[in-house]
Amino acid sequence: MAIALALLSAVCFGVALVTGRVGLRTLDARSGAAISIPTAAAMFAVAAPFTLDLSAFHVEAAIWFAVIGLFFPAVVTLLTFRSNEQLGPTVTGAVSGTAPLFALLAAGWFLGETIPLEAAVAAVGVVAGIVLLSSKRGAGAPRAAGWLLALPLSGAAVRGFAQAGAKAALVLWPQPVAATLIGYFVSSVIVVGTNRFARRDRPHASGTSVAWFAATGALNGGALVLLYTALTLAPVSLVAPIVATYPLVTTLVSAAVLRDEVLTARVMAGAAITIAAIVYLVAYGTSS
Length: 288
Hints:
Elements: H1 2-23, H2 29-51, H3 59-69, H4 74-87, H5 89-96, H6 99-111, H7 117-134, H8 150-172, H9 176-196, H10 207-233, H11 236-243, H12 246-258, H13 265-285
Helix pairs in contact: 1-10, 1-11, 1-12, 2-4, 2-9, 2-10, 3-8, 3-9, 4-5, 4-8, 5-7, 5-8, 5-12, 6-8, 6-11, 7-11, 7-13, 9-10
């Protein structure tokens, strides 16, 4: 079940990068985040009476969820949207795919998890495959140089450490919906406040751009609750590498819908390595 949930989370994260890219054609990253994150928060608030169990409420866990919400999804979304705007969905997804390396490091450091060799090998395989997925000859390479790569890399670090933090809190209070709702509420305050005090010479939000960012928020919100549910069932070392395959989804959807990608031999090799790494993790990591 944890593997299936992690795979579904990866699909949602991957598609969200594409819908976010479409929204960024007509609206800036900061304004988009101020639409997408509150949309997801509202979605979970509406669903809370039907999905949230407060009988085992844990104050410390709730505080941890709120602290995580200061950075994830708020900071990660802002960094991802900005990177998506500057580098495109594939390069953004590729660099963001290093998140499992940070997640494994945090899980071993803070949670005391013993990281199986299979998980480490799979994480490296996922990163290698994703690098191939994003590799492009000639045009586009200069844009991916320098400080711009710090945007998705910083987002990957925050995402990885947040997964370990969420796992620790979910041990105290195994309520993925509560974790997502609290985190998104705190993040909504941050992104709305940031957007409010930003410069005013920004594109006006049209109905189309609002719709695309609302869809992005719903997809990211769904992905996060699936991720947190998977973390209640399995260790970070199993869940993180699987969720990190979402750039593969981004590449395939971009090629099919946006026509931003061409399925070259290099892309297909990257996809094969990524899939092989996850098959290896599922086949051997779960049996060890």
